[in-house]
Amino acid sequence: MLKRSIPLHATLLALAICSAPEVIAADAFGDLYRPVAPVGTQQAQVVYYRAAAMGAQPGSANVYVDREFHTGLLPGGYSAFCVSPGTHTLGAYLNDAPQYRGKTTDVYSAELEGGQTYFLKASEGGVSTPQAVTRAQAEVDLTNMRQQIHALSRASSVQACNYLPASAPRKDYTLSSDVLFRFGKSSYGDISPEGRDAVRQLARQIKADNATLQHIEVIGHTDPIGSAAANQALGLQRAQTVRRVLIDAGLPGSSIQASSRGDSESLSSGCSGSRAEQIDCYAPDRRVVVRVKTQQ
Description:
The protein is of the alpha+beta class. The protein has seven helices and 14 strands. It has two domains: 147 residues, Sandwich (Immunoglobulin-like); 125 residues, CATH 3.30.1330.60.
């Protein structure tokens, strides 16, 4: 019974738009578009929109998902929704009554992958197949568009999106290991006076810049001179030393973690020659990165 009433509602709405657009406008649209967040692998997200272009035909373009009515897009309207990953049929049918072709015609079928967001643009001129659009282009089109809210979805495969939490903002501070330690050294007693001052100054800067501190990761990096195992250990020992100095300077130890990348994230290339020449060439690789994450 409910499903049979939806096409009638869409038809009456289209007639009302033609006769009194200023009345419909207040009720048909919701909030302005804002960039959608990502979803997990258990869902695929679709942003379906209809451009408010000159020459757009009057009336709503009825959107069907798996042959069931979802919404009626007016020019300048969009709908964001999720479905389970897999094959789905989608289409937007302008002036759909009384045939309601979206319930019986599968024009566009797509395999939607979990964790992905798809942007589809409704076509004009009687073409029901949507245009797949890149996110960059879609979000240009979606500027100043509003959410379509005048009709309730009756598409059983449509789900509310479970958005992933936004990642915490982070900032990296890089310290040269050559300032902190002599070549090959890493212990608390090995850190130079200049290096100790540099870490203390960094601690003061972190406290001043980050009132909502969440987590600090101290990451040791080395050059590729020596074995990978030795470099992994050296990077960790240097990170642990810097962590200790940061704690001495007043940062909370419970929020600071030490780790090592060893020589796996080199910044230098093409270094050759004598050992001294290689040590000089690889200097940018010998560093400690202090990665600060803050609460949003």
